[in-house]
Specification:
The structure holds 2 protein chains of 2 kinds.
Chain A: E1 4-7, E2 10-14, E3 19-25, E4 31-37, E5 43-48, E6 52-56, E7 59-64, E8 69-74, E9 83-90, E10 98-99, E11 103-108
Parallel strand pairs in A: 2-11
Antiparallel strand pairs in A: 1-3, 3-8, 4-5, 4-9, 6-7, 7-8, 9-10, 9-11
Chain B: E1 5-7, E2 10-13, E3 19-24, E4 31-37, E5 44-50, E6 53-57, E7 65-68, E8 75-79, E9 88-95, E10 100-102, E11 106-110
Parallel strand pairs in B: 2-11
Antiparallel strand pairs in B: 1-3, 3-8, 4-5, 4-9, 5-6, 7-8, 9-10, 9-11
Classes of the chains: A mainly beta, B mainly beta.
């Protein structure tokens, strides 16, 4: 199956700092999503972004499908941004979405 | 906004007991999934379900696991004889052939 690699695995930021999270995938994909897992374990859908760029408040994401990567940008980070960020991809038959191992973000006040 | 709902939110069971985890996918979605996440680890695929049958299953999804869509709204995961290593958060998800939508999960603890 397709390999999904996320970097960095861990990230510690001071409140107000900016960060970039990366998701690389080993084969062409039809769908790509970014999720935030909050401290209660809920998987919150951030972006559905198979290609192009989207922005939602302080968060934005870019997927370059031809080069097999996606980036999630967090600007002016807040303590509520803490948690684990997952990238998930799908190859077109919807049988399975493949998850990366996540980036664990800790934003300190 | 419509959402995927899962019940119960927490389930504690003894080893060897059967458990049924319940999910109500978003009503116009046609593809359903179960994923699980052992504490602190990655989200693992268990099974996908489409057109009233299993589309794909992982090696985790052995004979102890089964899924069912008993009516037009519910989607269930049954574990026949639970083991200690089945303790995890179980997530149900659905899609309308675009974005994947997750429920809030059922935390299963096997003692």
């Amino acid at each position: 199956g397709i390999q999904v690699e996320q970097s960095p695995p861990d990230l510690i930021l001071q409140e107000g700092a900016n960060s970039t999270l990366r998701c690389n995938f080993s084969d062409s994909v039809n769908n790509l999503q970014w999720f935030h897992q909050n401290p209660w374990g809920q998987l919150i859908n951030l972006f559905y972004i198979p290609s192009g760029t989207k922005q939602n408040g302080r968060l934005s994401a870019t997927t370059v499908a031809t080069e097999r990567y996606s980036l999630l940008y967090i600007s002016s980070s807040q303590t509520t941004d803490s948690g684990v960020y997952f990238c998930a991809v799908e190859q077109g038959n919807f049988n399975k979405f493949y998850f990366g191992s996540g980036t664990k973000l800790n934003v300190k006040p | 906004e419509p959402e995927v709902t899962q019940t119960p939110s927490h389930q504690v069971t003894q080893m060897g007991q059967e458990v049924i985890l319940r999910c109500v996918p978003i009503s116009n979605h046609l593809y359903f999934y179960w994923y699980r996440q052992i504490l602190g680890q990655k989200v693992e695929f268990l099974v996908s379900f489409y057109n009233n049958e299993i589309s794909e299953k992982s090696e985790i999804f052995d004979d102890q696991f089964s899924v069912e869509r008993p009516d037009g709204s519910n989607f269930t995961l049954k574990i026949r004889s639970t083991k200690l290593e089945d303790s995890a958060m179980y997530f149900c998800a659905s899609t309308d052939f675009s974005a994947l939508h997750f429920g809030n999960g059922t935390r299963l603890t096997v003692t």
